[in-house]
Amino acid sequence: MKSPLRIGIVGLGRLGQRHAQALAFSTRNCVLTAACSPVETEQAYAREQLGIQQVYSRYEDLLASPDVDAVVLVTPTSLHADQTIAALQAGKHVFVEKPLALNLPDCERVLAEAARHPELVAMVGFVRRFDPSYRAAQASIEAGEIGRPFIVRSQTCDQNDPDGFFVRFAPTSGGIFMDCSVHDIDLARWMLGRPKATRAYATGTVALHPGLSEFGDVDNGLAIVDFEGGAKAVFYASRTMAHGHETHTEIIGTAGKLLVGEHAARDRVVKSDSHGVRHAVLKDFYERFEAAFAAEMAEFVAACRGERTLTLTLSDALEATRIGLAITRSLKSGMPESV
């Protein structure tokens, strides 16, 4: 029997803590042996809440540990490329949260380094590919049940944060399309059969967070992407939903259509009373995709142990970045942009 995969996690912010909890307490065939963060409160969290003995403030020290086989990077996007390359050079498998990078040269550097280490797994966190409903939709498309898919309409809409977290995050986020719509971009390519994008157009507005204007960003954005062969994708991203998190995707084919995630219902309970008919809604992206996050990490562990071959590639991540950058350029220029 193979030994458990020994994992070191880097970054213990909101999502990092979620990944760490899953790795420490619920993911099979792995053990969380190390953690790294420059933030003292996050270091204390690793020791006290996760029981990790090896806690580092420097990434280089974690990579030097002989007790780490793989690293999970949940760090600022600007660090993703260099940290992924460093992990591969240190002989570690690596999982990195999306997007892979905020520019194409950095993506290409990662792909080149990964090619030099074919024995190592390098995976980007496009979590929606591991959601049971999205997987069922993609399987339906592959089986020809809706004919040839030719339009994808997809949205990522977060509940409004009055404290303006996204305004503070704006200088390093890459903008609303790179931060939110990159998931939808990857889904669209996946559902359409990975066609090459040719042109993008975007527009947007600032509805509630004027501080975003300083960074050329918006809190609500719309984009259209053309693909070779005539397929189209339409994306909507919002940071201002009043009721909760709402992610859904529609795939239209020549013989039918699929709709995933409509209404953002938390459960199957519908309440009817003097106030009307309603259901509880999802609070945030993690509540919507909790099962997908678990499946995603389980697949990474299985791939590192040689038990599974990943279908999600670094090239897919590069193409998502390429399209996201073209959309962002169009938002700022007001003109269609070549992809």
In words, what does this structure look like?
With 339 residues, the protein is an alpha/beta fold. It has helices spanning 14-25, 40-50, 59-64, 80-89, 104-115, 132-142, 165-173, 176-192, 285-304, 314-333; strands at 5-10, 30-36, 54-56, 70-73, 93-97, 122-125, 149-159, 197-205, 220-227, 232-241, 246-253, 256-260, 265-273, 276-281, 337-338. Strands 12-11-7-10-9-8-15 form a 7-stranded mixed beta sheet, with helices on one face. Strand 4, helix 4 and strand 5 (93-97) form a beta-alpha-beta unit. Helix 1 (14-25) crosses helix 9 and helix 5 packs antiparallel against helix 10. The radius of gyration is 20 Å and the shape is globular. The N and C termini lie far apart (47 Å). The model has no long low-confidence stretch (mean pLDDT 94).
Give a quick precis of the structure.
With 339 residues, the protein is of the alpha/beta class.
Terminal Cα span: 47 Å
N to C succession of SSEs: EHEHEHEHEHEHEHHEEEEEEEHHE
List how many beta strands DSSP finds.
15
Percentage of residues in strands: 25-35%
SS class: alpha/beta
Evaluate the radius of gyration.
20 Å
- Characterize the overall form: globular
Approximate helicity band: 25-40%
- Give me the side-by-side strand order of the main sheet: 12-11-7-10-9-8-15
Count of helical regions: 10
**Biggest sheet features:** 7 strands, mixed
Unreliable stretches: none
Mean pLDDT, as a whole number? Answer: 94
